[in-house]
Amino acid sequence: MSALATVAVVGSGLVAGVYTAFSTMVVPALRRRDPVDAAAVMIGINRAAERGPFLLLFSGTAVAAAALGVSALVRSDGADGAVAAASLASTAITVAVNVPLNRRLERDPASWSAYARTWTAWNSVRALAAAAAVVVALSTRS
Question: Rounded to two decimals, what is the model's pTM?
Fold first, then answer.
Protein backbone atom coordinates (compact mmCIF):
# COMPACT_ATOMS: atom_id res chain seq x y z
CA MET A 1 0.00 0.00 0.00
CA SER A 2 1.38 3.41 -0.91
CA ALA A 3 2.04 6.06 1.72
CA LEU A 4 -0.84 8.10 0.29
CA ALA A 5 -3.25 5.17 0.53
CA THR A 6 -2.03 4.44 4.06
CA VAL A 7 -2.76 8.01 5.18
CA ALA A 8 -6.22 7.93 3.59
CA VAL A 9 -7.06 4.52 5.05
CA VAL A 10 -5.73 5.15 8.56
CA GLY A 11 -7.40 8.57 8.61
CA SER A 12 -10.68 7.05 7.44
CA GLY A 13 -10.47 4.45 10.18
CA LEU A 14 -9.83 7.05 12.85
CA VAL A 15 -12.65 9.25 11.58
CA ALA A 16 -15.00 6.25 11.46
CA GLY A 17 -14.13 5.51 15.08
CA VAL A 18 -14.86 9.06 16.22
CA TYR A 19 -18.19 9.11 14.38
CA THR A 20 -19.15 5.69 15.73
CA ALA A 21 -18.38 6.82 19.28
CA PHE A 22 -20.76 9.73 18.83
CA SER A 23 -23.59 7.61 17.40
CA THR A 24 -23.27 4.84 19.96
CA MET A 25 -22.22 6.64 23.15
CA VAL A 26 -21.99 10.43 23.13
CA VAL A 27 -25.33 11.42 21.62
CA PRO A 28 -27.29 8.67 23.43
CA ALA A 29 -25.80 9.93 26.71
CA LEU A 30 -26.66 13.52 25.83
CA ARG A 31 -30.24 12.53 24.96
CA ARG A 32 -30.68 11.41 28.59
CA ARG A 33 -29.83 14.91 29.81
CA ASP A 34 -31.89 18.04 29.91
CA PRO A 35 -32.31 19.21 26.28
CA VAL A 36 -30.95 22.70 27.01
CA ASP A 37 -27.82 21.24 28.62
CA ALA A 38 -27.44 18.61 25.90
CA ALA A 39 -27.63 21.24 23.15
CA ALA A 40 -25.06 23.41 24.94
CA VAL A 41 -22.65 20.48 25.30
CA MET A 42 -23.06 19.45 21.66
CA ILE A 43 -22.54 23.02 20.46
CA GLY A 44 -19.32 23.12 22.48
CA ILE A 45 -18.18 19.80 21.02
CA ASN A 46 -18.94 20.99 17.49
CA ARG A 47 -16.93 24.17 18.02
CA ALA A 48 -13.99 22.18 19.37
CA ALA A 49 -14.15 19.81 16.38
CA GLU A 50 -13.68 22.73 14.01
CA ARG A 51 -10.32 23.51 15.57
CA GLY A 52 -7.25 21.57 16.55
CA PRO A 53 -6.58 17.87 16.26
CA PHE A 54 -9.90 16.68 14.85
CA LEU A 55 -9.89 19.34 12.13
CA LEU A 56 -6.39 18.23 11.14
CA LEU A 57 -7.48 14.58 11.07
CA PHE A 58 -10.65 15.35 9.10
CA SER A 59 -8.99 17.71 6.61
CA GLY A 60 -5.85 15.62 6.21
CA THR A 61 -7.91 12.51 5.51
CA ALA A 62 -10.02 14.36 2.94
CA VAL A 63 -6.94 15.74 1.16
CA ALA A 64 -5.25 12.32 1.17
CA ALA A 65 -8.42 10.65 -0.14
CA ALA A 66 -8.81 13.24 -2.90
CA ALA A 67 -5.18 12.83 -3.94
CA LEU A 68 -5.58 9.05 -3.80
CA GLY A 69 -8.64 9.33 -6.03
CA VAL A 70 -6.75 11.35 -8.63
CA SER A 71 -3.84 8.94 -8.46
CA ALA A 72 -6.22 5.99 -8.84
CA LEU A 73 -7.75 7.56 -11.95
CA VAL A 74 -4.34 8.13 -13.50
CA ARG A 75 -3.25 4.58 -12.70
CA SER A 76 -6.64 2.98 -13.44
CA ASP A 77 -6.59 1.47 -9.94
CA GLY A 78 -10.14 0.52 -9.05
CA ALA A 79 -9.30 -0.54 -5.51
CA ASP A 80 -7.69 2.78 -4.57
CA GLY A 81 -10.50 4.56 -6.40
CA ALA A 82 -13.07 2.75 -4.26
CA VAL A 83 -11.16 3.59 -1.08
CA ALA A 84 -11.04 7.25 -2.09
CA ALA A 85 -14.71 7.30 -3.07
CA ALA A 86 -15.86 5.83 0.24
CA SER A 87 -13.68 8.18 2.26
CA LEU A 88 -14.79 11.19 0.25
CA ALA A 89 -18.44 10.14 0.62
CA SER A 90 -17.98 10.46 4.38
CA THR A 91 -16.46 13.92 3.89
CA ALA A 92 -19.30 14.98 1.58
CA ILE A 93 -21.94 13.92 4.11
CA THR A 94 -20.14 15.92 6.77
CA VAL A 95 -20.02 19.06 4.66
CA ALA A 96 -23.49 18.74 3.11
CA VAL A 97 -25.47 17.45 6.09
CA ASN A 98 -23.82 17.34 9.51
CA VAL A 99 -22.15 20.76 9.48
CA PRO A 100 -25.36 22.55 8.36
CA LEU A 101 -27.26 20.69 11.11
CA ASN A 102 -24.63 21.90 13.59
CA ARG A 103 -25.12 25.48 12.42
CA ARG A 104 -28.88 25.12 12.79
CA LEU A 105 -28.49 23.82 16.35
CA GLU A 106 -26.34 26.85 17.21
CA ARG A 107 -29.10 29.15 15.95
CA ASP A 108 -31.88 27.15 17.64
CA PRO A 109 -30.74 25.10 20.64
CA ALA A 110 -34.40 24.26 21.36
CA SER A 111 -34.31 22.03 18.27
CA TRP A 112 -32.09 19.54 20.13
CA SER A 113 -34.47 16.54 20.01
CA ALA A 114 -35.01 16.70 16.24
CA TYR A 115 -31.35 17.56 15.70
CA ALA A 116 -30.15 14.57 17.72
CA ARG A 117 -32.27 12.11 15.72
CA THR A 118 -31.34 13.46 12.29
CA TRP A 119 -27.71 14.21 13.09
CA THR A 120 -27.11 10.77 14.58
CA ALA A 121 -28.66 9.00 11.60
CA TRP A 122 -26.45 10.88 9.14
CA ASN A 123 -23.46 10.57 11.46
CA SER A 124 -23.90 6.80 11.35
CA VAL A 125 -24.02 6.88 7.55
CA ARG A 126 -20.80 8.86 7.36
CA ALA A 127 -19.18 6.48 9.87
CA LEU A 128 -20.15 3.54 7.66
CA ALA A 129 -18.74 5.29 4.58
CA ALA A 130 -15.42 5.96 6.32
CA ALA A 131 -15.31 2.38 7.63
CA ALA A 132 -16.07 1.11 4.13
CA ALA A 133 -12.86 2.77 2.92
CA VAL A 134 -10.92 0.69 5.43
CA VAL A 135 -12.79 -2.53 4.58
CA VAL A 136 -12.18 -2.04 0.85
CA ALA A 137 -8.49 -1.36 1.44
CA LEU A 138 -8.07 -4.43 3.60
CA SER A 139 -10.06 -6.71 1.34
CA THR A 140 -8.22 -5.73 -1.84
CA ARG A 141 -4.69 -6.07 -0.48
CA SER A 142 -2.86 -9.39 -0.25
Answer: 0.94
